[in-house]
Write a structure and sequence with these properties.
TIGR02757 family protein; mainly alpha; single chain; 2 strands; globular; CHP02757
Length: 267
């Protein structure tokens, strides 16, 4: 391992130890998941939170909280006992950026169909995961297909990796549900952490460029995989472990991406 790699490894380890803590979660839609002890409820809350995770983080948390408050203490019971018509009625007037009650109702209807067919989102996802797949990307495509199968109208709330998207929100959802540590609550089984892909957006892309994990200028699926492979050099069994600590820079007001880039330059 070259000296620069040793420096990057030490920097990542230091950031993980310092910032991978519950005290650094807020503001983040992840905080909405902590209220659910049952995995059957948490996985549904997590998918809703991830699908709405675009725009200003304060508004994301507000929108996710509003949806979960309507659903009550058990999102699982709410969704399983509902119908597409009831979902749209319950969330009449809902709006989050480009999403309205039609998009949200379609998402909940798709989740309901998956629950009826597979028993859980976890079981549905695992069915699409093959041992030979190096990452979760093919399984993500199958998962999106099953959610969309009987619920047209979900639209932009579910990205499709086959179109080249980095699928930041879906990879964020998987990080929350597959990993378990001080911040990620976990709960899912049957998915190796080594297959996860870093949730890539413009901020994480800038961090990847600064750390030398990619030279690609597009924040797309290819870049997400390339950066994940870079992180795997330092944590092969859990390459996404650094995501939370790194993304505090740019989310929390007192932590700027430029500060992290300067830290990388000085490492």
């Amino acid at each position: 391992m070259s000296l620069p790699d040793l420096k990057r490894k030490k920097l990542l380890a230091r950031l993980y130890r310092r910032y991978n803590r519950r005290s650094y979660v807020s503001p983040d839609p992840l905080e909405c998941l902590y209220r659910f002890d049952e995995v059957k409820d948490r996985e549904l809350a997590a998918l809703i939170a991830a699908c709405l995770a675009y725009g200003r983080v304060a508004q994301i948390v507000k929108s996710v909280s509003a949806v979960l408050n309507v659903m009550g203490p058990s999102p699982h019971d709410f969704i399983c006992s509902g119908t597409p018509a009831r979902f749209e009625k319950e969330f009449a007037g809902f709006r989050h950026r480009f999403a309205d009650e039609v998009h949200l109702g379609a998402l909940l209807a798709g989740m309901r169909q998956v629950l009826l067919a597979y028993g859980s989102l976890n079981a549905c996802f695992v069915e699409g995961l093959r041992k030979k797949d190096p990452t979760v990307i093919p399984a993500l495509s199958a998962f999106v297909d099953r959610l969309n199968a009987d619920a047209g109208g979900i639209g932009h709330l579910l990205a499709d990796p086959r179109k080249g998207s980095a699928c930041k929100r879906l990879n964020l959802f998987l990080r929350w549900m597959v990993r378990k540590d001080s911040v990620d609550p976990g709960g899912w089984a049957g998915i190796p952490r080594a297959k996860l892909v870093v949730p890539l957006d413009t901020h994480m892309h800038a961090i990847g460029l600064a750390l030398g994990l990619t030279r690609r200028q597009q924040a797309d699926c290819v870049t997400a995989v390339e950066m994940t492979q870079g992180f795997a050099c330092f944590s092969p069994r859990d390459p996404v472990k650094y995501d939370f600590a790194l993304t505090r820079f740019g989310i929390r007001q007192e932590m700027k991406v430029d500060d992290l880039i300067r830290m990388a330059d000085c490492a």
